[in-house]
Design goal:
Rossmann fold; 312 residues; two-stranded antiparallel sheet; alpha/beta; 8-stranded mixed β-sheet; binds S-adenosylmethionine
Amino acid sequence: MFSYRHAFHAGNHADVLKHTTLIAMLRHLLQKDTALTVFDTHAGAGLYRLDGEYAETSGEAANGFLKLLTFINTPPAPAKKPSAAAKSIAEGLAPVIKDYMDLVASFNNKGSHKVYPGSPFIIQRLLGERDKLKLFEIHPTDTKTLAANIAQLEAGRQVAVLREDGFEGIKKFLPPPARRALVLSDPSYEIKNDYARVVAMVADSLVRFATGTYAVWYPIIPRPEAHDVPRKLKTLATKSGKKWLNATLTVKSSKLTADEAGDVIRPGLPASGMFIINPPHTLKAALQLALPQLAEILGQDQHATSTVESGG
Ligand code: SAM
């Protein structure tokens, strides 16, 4: 039924955007004294190997996390006329990018970068003892792998792996006991209905628990239902009187090209976004510094860019 496996995509530019934003949000939310419950409605397998068969077949991390790593370890010679982003990088990498790189490095032996943590492990690494993590995953193989990976943490009741539909499963947990929550929703959008379901899930969750922070990753591709996700979430936030933030990272053009034989070459995922309702107040400034730097480093053509828009 489901053919999407995140192992092919782990560490790609979409993961860089999603995980950098996730860490920046958690750093702020975890400063408070009250316990936080984090929900990951589409958790994946939790840990991935960048030197494994899946990652090597797709090579996606090479244009994402690994490209960033190479840039940091061996910065290119400065251009004669550097862009504003290149100048900003020369002055120092944004703290949230450093934080992200350090966190991924902490899953690896010094100097090696074989393991890439998915959102469950990134979140768990940052939580305090009083905080809770609920992970939903529906793919039979990924659920098993996730459960086995999480078991090794010996985190006890702090982390729960639920083999359930995340869109539905979250309902019974809202509002959470200490009335503080971050919901990450990162569907694979393999099923067209996911676009509508993620918006419906946020709408329903806001009724159950209006003060939660809701973060939705979405692909930016030439499909009307993909464009609808940020548009509908913005309308939802505005109607509910909530603050929102929409951050996007584009690494290349979305145009189809042709090879020498005239066969169409699909560009692969050119861009993605994170839409956040009730964002931490520190997030906008952090991403406004980080995202132009990420677009400069990960950009593959002159269409590379980033945006950070907010309202409410
Ligand atoms: N959030 C993960 C990360 O950042 O490391 C990656 C998640 S991946 C993009 C999406 C995952 O959602 C896949 O592993 C897929 O099997 C799972 N999935 C698909 N539909 C689901 C549903 N309705 N409920 C829960 N999981 C689902």
